[in-house]
Design brief:
Order of helices and strands: EEEHEHEHHH
Strand order of the largest sheet: 3-2-1-4-5
Number of strands: 5
Number of domains: 1
Number of helices: 5
CATH topology: Nucleotidyltransferase, domain 5
Structural class: alpha/beta
Distance between the termini: 48 Å
Radius of gyration: 19 Å
CATH superfamily: Ribonuclease H-like superfamily/Ribonuclease H
Strand content: 15-25%
Shape: globular
Family: Belongs to the RuvC family.
Keywords: Cytoplasm, DNA damage, DNA recombination, DNA repair, DNA-binding, Endonuclease, Hydrolase, Magnesium, Metal-binding, Nuclease
Subcellular location: Cytoplasm
CATH class: Alpha Beta
Mean pLDDT: 92
CATH architecture: 2-Layer Sandwich
Largest sheet: 5 strands, mixed
Protein name: Crossover junction endodeoxyribonuclease RuvC
InterPro entries: RNaseH-like_sf, RNaseH_sf, X-over_junc_endoDNase_Mg_BS, X-over_junc_endoDNase_RuvC
Length: about 180
C-alpha cells in the first residue's frame, strides 16, 4: 500500500510518500515541505499547495492519503489556514478517487511512539528508526508528514476491520427491519 502523509499548513505543508509491505515493514519513498510566504495572498498560497499536491499525486500515485486532522488551537487564523490547506489536498484526492483518512495528532503520536502525548523529538526519533533513515528528517513538518503516513500504515488493518464490521451491522439492521415490516 502506498500512503501519502500530509502535515497541512499554509506556511509549511509537509508531504511524504511511504510504501508498506508485510507486517510493519515501511519504506520511505519521498518527503518534502511546500513553503508559501506569509505575505502572499491566501488564494495564491492555496494554489501553490494545490499545484505541489497535484504533482505528487501524478508522480507517486498513492493508494490513500493520510492528513492530520485540524485540532483546536488558540490561534484561529492558524487553524483556518491548516484546515484550508487540508481541504485543498482532500479535494485533489477526491478528483482522483483516492481515499482520504484524517488522523489526530494524538493518534499519530500513539501509533508511532506508543505515547499519545509524545513530543516532537520523540516522534522524529521514532520516524527515523521505523523507516531506518540515515538522518532525522527535517524540518519538523517533514517528520510529521512521515509520521502521518506511518500512522496510517499501522492503523489501516484495524480501520478496514472496523469498516467491514460497520457494513455488516448495517446489513443486519436492514434485514431485521425488513423482517419486522414483513411480520406486520
Amino acid at each position: 500500500m502506498r500512503v501519502m502523509g500530509v502535515d497541512p499548513g499554509l506556511t509549511r505543508c509537509g508531504l511524504s510518500m511511504v510504501e508498506s509491505g508485510r507486517g510493519r515493514n515501511i519504506v520511505a519513498l519521498d518527503v518534502d515541505v511546500v513553503r508559501t510566504p506569509s505575505d502572499t495572498a491566501l488564494p495564491r498560497r492555496l494554489l501553490t499547495i494545490s499545484d505541489a499536491v497535484e504533482h505528487w499525486l501524478d508522480t507517486h500515485q498513492p493508494d490513500v492519503i493520510a492528513i492530520e486532522r485540524v485540532f483546536a488551537q488558540h490561534n484561529v487564523s492558524t487553524v483556518m489556514g491548516t484546515a484550508q490547506a487540508g481541504g485543498v489536498i482532500a479535494v485533489a484526492a477526491a478528483k482522483r478517487d483516492i481515499d482520504v483518512h484524517f488522523h489526530t495528532p494524538s493518534e499519530v503520536k500513539a501509533a508511532v511512539t506508543g505515547n499519545g502525548t509524545a513530543d516532537k523529538a520523540q516522534v522524529t526519533a521514532m520516524v527515523t528508526r521505523i523507516l531506518a533513515l540515515q538522518a532525522k528528517p527535517t524540518p519538523a513538518d517533514a517528520a510529521d508528514a512521515l509520521a502521518l503516513a506511518i500512522c496510517h500504515c499501522f492503523r489501516a488493518p484495524m480501520l478496514a476491520r472496523m469498516a467491514k464490521a460497520e457494513a455488516l451491522a448495517a446489513e443486519q439492521r436492514r434485514k431485521y427491519a425488513a423482517r419486522l415490516k414483513a411480520a406486520r
